[in-house]
Design goal:
heterotrimer, A alpha/beta (about 300), B alpha/beta (about 550), C alpha/beta (about 140), A: about 300 residues, Rossmann fold, about 50% helix, C: alpha/beta, 5 helices, about 40% helix
Chain lengths: ~300, ~550, ~140
């Protein structure tokens, strides 16, 4: 277990040793299915994930959870507290929980997460559950990595479903209305349904995201949730979307790696090449210097 | 030409402003909670309201017309350690030395509803209080102490109903009628979720147990204070005085709401609700806090809840001097701290008081330190003269202004809590926990920056700290307690016990008041852990949402 | 054009072991450590030694910080050290805080606890101690 944990650290750090490790593991059987959970703070995501893990453990599956929390932009530090909600799985050998700060990963969180997922899959964990705090970019990052993206809502959303950011509705493969035991849950369901029908994706045979009601604290609705996730997975396989998605991801990843490498070189160039730095100041705009750096790369 | 005489206050202001004399030590001049404090208060700062009297609504100056002239506060020192037998000895010692009420501290396993032989009890037995596993231990604890003649306060929360039933069962064996029993049960589960974190079950069933105990006592144990709605722990967790005040009273109202929902009438139970506050080191802020508490509670009880019995409006409270203000460095100084804090509680009109011993930062108090703490109260009561008049600081420009400010801040918090949907939704949204964590961190920053001092810790330190004697628990006692609980299980009528626990489980799944069922289980020598396990089977366990 | 190794912050698992729930101290320290650039994985209350070590292994943490106010430190700290030995992870540094008398501190250090901080210790002292041990991260 420590080996796996250390390997994840290596890929997080983009350590050169990681590359060798990844090559070695490439042939290992086991690709993990990735389910991403996102939603505003307070929607009970951690409790939901905890309940889902329990459900999967009953089927004797080995599950991994990657929980991300924001780092301080100033100090780089973070407090990662998602494990607390998953106490009952502590000491279960078939549950692996890893907390990740959202920053400090060259190339962004998505890259580090993908590597970690490959490792977890290679070690036999399937599915891998990603849990993020739904603020800022993180929902989109989750969607880029997850095979099925679950968006979690609750009845006490204040101004209602309208408040949900545009873009979130589009990335959701499954909607969960958690805390369904609270007042107002029916209203959220209705609002959500009407918003979804308005935004209907048109093409025949396309996936229509189901809305699942859960009361995670009571352990209710979890089988419905897993069923919804499973049927999405089957849909992806049946329509060949799975493969297309995987291909697209690999391409996205490649672009990200290129971007990361280029970014590093650009930083180094601006730091080391005094001439460039001076020219930048003279220009006052980045574009020409940027092109110069790109030219230097090739 | 006539020269108009200058307003004296104006003169003072000018002199103050123009004076070169100014402290520049960088120390904050606000209260420890951050309430700004003016250099001077005058009659201009006196709130415009009709003069208030002790014993008259809204009781700002005290709930009794006689104050301490009628009766001094109860000197109630919290204690308990290791075994029931040793604690029994300490009780007899304190009673002989003039203590007027007993207060029981339980050890961690007991507080958490675990038997001494549970694996997670290892290393924790008897360290911070007495280990009580069953009625047998309770009988030993009160051996030779007539329950009809004293009052007892029991500091326990999640398993409170069980310990109360044990106390009742002991009284039964002594032949004392329940109707004669007086005392207090802390039984305040809401502050566990907020601050002390000794919760076991989720909020809903926890509240049910509290309401069961209030309902039961209203009929069967009418002199018993069913709950000690606590601010102490909230304060110790790092809250400000206003937060302590507001969160405690809000909790109180949540309990009132729950009891009314159960079908009780406010006047049936409200007079037996009691409170428990911290007496921290910022002297005047604490006095203002206590006075504001009485006024706020009286108003809400009468205006919002429509209570008609005067006793329902009167807030009665116990105070403990602030543990968190004590230092491990130069610990004798804690005696002085405690004395000053105790003084503020007395000037605030507390009904009962616990003074900390000087060595409590390090361990449970030695006999000598415990006695000194008690003597401190006796000093205040009999030598300083502050008990000769009621609410001596009434009318003080500063204290009245500060009392009003406390009230204002508390009311602002009530609104915020209401917006969140009430206390329990606020707990689940981690509102209180966040406020407390922020306040704690802020204070720590102030200390680190020396904007506030802790004498002996961040200033006025000494290089060589003296060794002081501290009390150590003999590890042998842990083994003996483990033996004891096993012996109780072996000796009892197992059939009676099993039957009682089965009935309890059934009742817990239903809506019966659980007190009679718990009492029967206790009589059958079911252990605390067994009773808790039975309830956990039905109620489940609670994990908090941690907010840092 | 080798990719640079990212400087990842030093990871610290912080927990309260034993039954006591006084988490003011551990939370204040966690914040201070975050502000100093560390990644703090807070695993909460009522942790057993096994749970703490397990978490430290999964999270690939370099440090474990324990908080204890119930007097059970002579049982629980050694239990954590023992568990680390069992899991072959004695490179993980263990420190702690709480109400611990001086003689006990000395004894616990002998048993492998790296440092113990008593009430009144300024946060900056704790941070300074960590920085000294882990100059490269945090």
């Amino acid at each position: 277990m420590r080996a796996l944990a250390r390997a994840i650290t290596l890929v997080e750090r983009r350590d050169p040793q990681a590359r060798a490790l990844q090559q070695a593991l490439r042939d290992r059987v086991g690709k993990a299915y990735v389910v991403g959970f996102t939603g505003a703070p307070g929607t009970g995501k951690s409790t939901l994930v905890d309940a889902l893990v329990a459900h999967l453990r009953k089927q004797d599956r080995a599950v991994a959870v990657i929980a991300t929390d924001p780092n301080s932009p100033f100090t780089g530090g973070a407090i990662l507290g998602d494990r607390i909600r998953m106490q009952r799985h502590a000491l279960d050998k078939k549950v692996f929980i890893r907390s990740m700060g959202a920053r400090g990963h060259l190339g962004g969180l998505a890259l580090a997460t993908r590597e970690a997922i490959r490792l977890l899959g290679a070690f036999g964990f399937d599915p891998v559950i990603l849990e993020t705090v739904g603020v800022g970019q993180s929902e989109l990052e989750v969607a880029a990595v997850a095979d099925t993206t679950v968006v979690v809502l609750t009845p006490n959303l204040g101004d209602g479903v309208q408040m949900i950011k545009a873009g979130i509705l589009e990335i959701a493969d499954v909607f969960v209305v958690n805390k369904a035991d609270l007042e107002g849950y029916q209203r959220v369901m209705i609002e959500l349904r009407s918003m979804l029908s308005l935004a209907a994706r048109g093409e025949a045979g396309s996936w229509k995201p189901p809305i699942v009601a859960t009361a995670a604290a009571k352990g209710e609705g979890i089988d419905g949730l897993w069923e919804a996730i499973e049927s999405h997975r089957k849909h992806l396989e049946a329509t060949g979307r799975a493969e297309a998605q995987a291909e697209q991801r690999l391409r996205d990843e490649t672009t990200e790696v290129v971007a990361e490498l280029a970014r590093e070189r650009a930083r180094a160039a601006l730091a080391d090449d005094g001439r460039l730095a001076e020219r930048l100041l003279q220009d006052g705009t980045p574009y020409e210097v940027a092109e110069e750096i790109l030219r230097q790369l090739t | 030409m006539k020269v108009r005489a200058k307003d004296p206050r104006q003169v003072w202001q000018e002199e103050f402003d123009s004076s070169a004399s100014r402290r520049n030590d960088g120390i904050e001049t606000s209260t420890i909670s951050g309430v700004p404090v003016e250099p001077l208060y005058t009659s201009d700062d006196l709130p415009a309201r009709p003069e208030e009297m002790p014993g008259q609504y809204p009781y700002t100056r005290g709930i009794h017309p006689t104050g301490y002239r009628g009766r001094l506060w109860t000197m109630r020192q919290f204690s308990g350690f290791a075994t029931a037998q040793e604690t029994n000895r300490r009780y007899k010692y304190l009673l002989a030395n003039g203590q007027t009420g007993l207060s029981v501290a339980f050890d961690m396993p007991t507080l958490m509803g675990q038997d001494s032989d549970a694996p997670t009890s290892r290393g924790e037995i008897g360290h911070c209080g007495v280990a009580i596993d069953s009625l047998a231990d309770m009988e030993t604890l009160f051996e030779g102490i007539p329950l009809g003649d004293i009052t007892t306060s029991m500091t326990i929360n999640s398993p409170a109903a069980i310990l109360l039933c044990m106390y009742l069962a002991v009284a039964e064996k002594q032949g004392v009628s329940f109707k004669k029993l007086g005392g207090t049960l802390q039984n305040d589960i809401l502050k566990e979720f907020i601050a002390q974190k000794e919760f076991i079950f989720p909020p809903e069933p926890s509240m049910r147990l509290v309401v069961d105990s209030i309902e039961y006592c209203a009929k069967e144990v009418p002199k018993w204070n069913t709950i000690s709605i606590s601010g102490y722990h909230i304060r110790e967790a790092g809250s400000t005085a206003a937060q302590e005040l507001a969160f405690t009273l809000a909790d109180g109202m949540a309990y009132v709401d729950a009891c009314i929902e159960r079908g009780m009438h406010i006047d049936e139970f409200a007079s037996r609700l009691s409170f428990f506050f911290d007496a921290h080191i910022d002297f005047f802020e604490e006095i203002a806090k206590f006075r504001a508490a009485r006024r706020i509670w009286a108003r809400w009880m009468r205006e919002k809840y429509g209570a008609r019995d005067e006793r329902s409006w009167k807030l009665r409270f116990h105070t403990q001097t602030a543990g968190v203000s004590l230092t491990a460095q130069q610990p004798e100084l804690n005696i002085a701290r405690t004395a000053l804090e105790a003084m503020s509680a007395v000037l605030g009109g507390t009904q009962s008081l616990h003074t900390n011993a000087m060595d409590e930062v390090l361990a449970l108090p030695t006999d000598k330190a415990a006695r000194l703490a008690l003597r401190t109260q006796q000093l205040i009561a009999y030598e300083t003269g502050v008990a000769n008049t009621i609410d001596p600081l009434g009318g003080s420009y500063f204290v009245e202004a500060l009392t009003d400010e406390m009230e204002r801040q508390a009311e602002a918090y009530f609104k915020r809590i209401e917006e969140l949907g009430g206390v329990i939704p606020a707990i689940e949204a981690a509102f209180f926990q966040k406020e407390i964590a922020d306040a704690a961190f802020r204070y720590q920053q102030e200390l680190e920056q020396k904007r506030r001092l802790m004498v002996g810790v961040n200033e006025f330190t000494v290089d060589e700290e003296e060794e002081i004697d501290i009390l150590r628990i003999d590890p042998k006692l842990e083994r003996e307690q483990v033996e004891r609980v096993r012996a109780v299980r072996a000796k009892r009528d197992q059939a009676r016990c099993t039957k009682a626990l089965t009935r309890l489980r059934k009742a817990a799944a239903g809506t019966d008041n659980l007190m009679p069922h718990i009492l029967e289980a206790v009589r059958a020598y079911a252990t605390e852990g067994e009773i808790m396990s039975t309830l956990i089977e039905v109620f489940g366990l609670y994990t908090e949402r941690a907010v840092i | 054009m080798a990719a640079k190794t990212a400087t990842k912050p030093v990871r610290i698992v912080m927990a309260k072991v034993g039954l006591d729930g006084h988490d003011r101290g551990v939370k204040v320290v966690a914040r201070a450590l975050r502000d100093a650039g560390y990644e703090v994985i807070y695993t909460g209350l009522r942790q057993t030694p096994e749970m703490v070590v397990d978490a430290a292994l999964q999270e690939d943490a370099q440090v474990i910080g324990l908080s204890l106010h119930s007097g059970a430190h002579m049982t629980l700290f050694p239990a954590v050290i023992e568990e680390l030995k069992k899991r072959d992870a004695t490179d993980i540094v263990v420190f702690g805080g709480g109400i611990i008398p001086d003689d006990d501190i000395a004894e616990l250090k002998k048993q492998g606890v790296a440092e113990l901080f008593t009430p009144g210790t300024p946060l900056q002292d704790i941070v300074a101690w960590l920085k000294k041990r882990f100059p490269e991260g945090g």
